[in-house]
Amino acid sequence: MKVLITGKNGQLGSELQRSCPDNIEIQCFDSQTLDITDIAIVNEILISFSPDIVINTAAYTAVDKAESDIDAAYAVNQTGVANLATACKAINAKLIHISTDFVFDGTKTTPYVSGDATNPLGVYGASKLAGEQAVSRILGEQAIIVRTAWVYSQFGNNFVKTMLRLMSEKEQLGVVYDQVGTPTWAAGLAKMLWALVQKSSDKAEEARDKLQVTSDKVEETSDKLQVTSDKVEEARDKIQDASDKVEEARDKIQDASDKVEEARDKIQDASDKVGAESKTLNQTTILN
Ligand SMILES: NC(=O)c1ccc[n+]([C@@H]2O[C@H](COP(=O)([O-])OP(=O)(O)OC[C@H]3O[C@@H](n4cnc5c(N)ncnc54)[C@H](OP(=O)(O)O)[C@@H]3O)[C@@H](O)[C@H]2O)c1
């Protein structure tokens, strides 16, 4: 099983590399080696590595900056994601795409589920939702969209590291308390993503096995068909032989019948001659 990972230097990309299972071959890219906004590069790399699965962790993640950097946010989070989905479709690879709770407006007072109505409040959330929609449109069931929230890890910047740093620097901290969220440990999320990959791999293996069984049965049926066909051929040859012999016998009978006819004609001729001679003899006797 070959897996291509985008955004390898990000929080999630780093954790995915650290926890990659032994039976999986990975190829990981940063924005320099695989800029997902560049369709030509995306196609070239996906075709040459030919992965079974692509995990897209690459994203424009600067939530506040996105409000004034709209084109850049959409270029990565919508166009770049659509590029990956299109290339995945071309090479028949599965896409596991990471999205965000920011596609919701946050007004729900119970935990969100995947079917809840989306309503992003900012550019980052709207661009990520546009990316999700592109993935679903292009790949349908061939893609999995995983929405996560408040990702933290030892890598990059995140609120846990910020809090730890501020706590070591200050006596008192002023922190917003009007937000509710579920912090997600990037290592835990990576583990869950590898489990998803493993499940896909098992399904692919199962489908391959079923195909093998079907192929074996086809082979077996074809062999049986060949045996039957050989027997039919053999029977046809025997019938032909018998038919040739019947033809031969018929010819012999015809020959014999012709000879009998010929002999009968000769007997008739001889008989006619004997009759004529006997008549002449009678006339001679009378004259005498
Ligand atoms: N962090 C969160 O709290 C959070 C919350 C919800 C959802 N998410 C989603 O989870 C995923 C992973 O997040 P993360 O925290 O790991 O993000 P991250 O640490 O900000 O990493 C994102 C990576 O995307 C790469 N990238 C940006 N533009 C790119 C481009 N044009 N082509 C290729 N790569 C590009 C960057 O690569 P370079 O470093 O090489 O430039 C960066 O390493 C993202 O989809 C994000 O939207 C994150």
From TrEMBL:
Enzyme Commission number, as recorded: 1.1.1.133
Pfam families assigned to the protein according to its UniProt record, in alphabetical order: RmlD_sub_bind (PF04321)
EC top class named in words: oxidoreductase
Cofactor note: Binds 1 Mg(2+) ion per monomer.
Compositionally biased intervals (Polar residues): 279-288
Catalytic activity: dTDP-beta-L-rhamnose + NADP(+) = dTDP-4-dehydro-beta-L-rhamnose + NADPH + H(+)
Involved pathway(s): Carbohydrate biosynthesis; dTDP-L-rhamnose biosynthesis
Cofactor(s), by name: Mg(2+)
Keyword Oxidoreductase belongs to the record: yes
Domain of life of the source: Bacteria
GO MF term set: dTDP-4-dehydrorhamnose reductase activity
Ranges of Basic and acidic residues composition bias in the record: 205-223, 230-276
Sequence ranges assigned to domain RmlD-like substrate binding in this UniProt record: 1-206
InterPro entries on file: dTDP_dehydrorham_reduct (IPR005913), NAD(P)-bd_dom_sf (IPR036291), RmlD-like-bd (IPR029903)
Record's keyword annotation contains NADP: yes
Alphabetical keyword list: NADP, Oxidoreductase
Residue span of region Disordered: 205-288
NCBIfam families in the cross-refs: rmlD
PANTHER family recorded: DTDP-4-DEHYDRORHAMNOSE REDUCTASE, METHIONINE ADENOSYLTRANSFERASE 2 SUBUNIT BETA
Described purpose of this protein according to its UniProt entry: Catalyzes the reduction of dTDP-6-deoxy-L-lyxo-4-hexulose to yield dTDP-L-rhamnose.
Membership in a protein family: Belongs to the dTDP-4-dehydrorhamnose reductase family.
Protein name as annotated: dTDP-4-dehydrorhamnose reductase
Organism the protein comes from: Shewanella phaeophyticola
Gene name of this polypeptide: rfbD
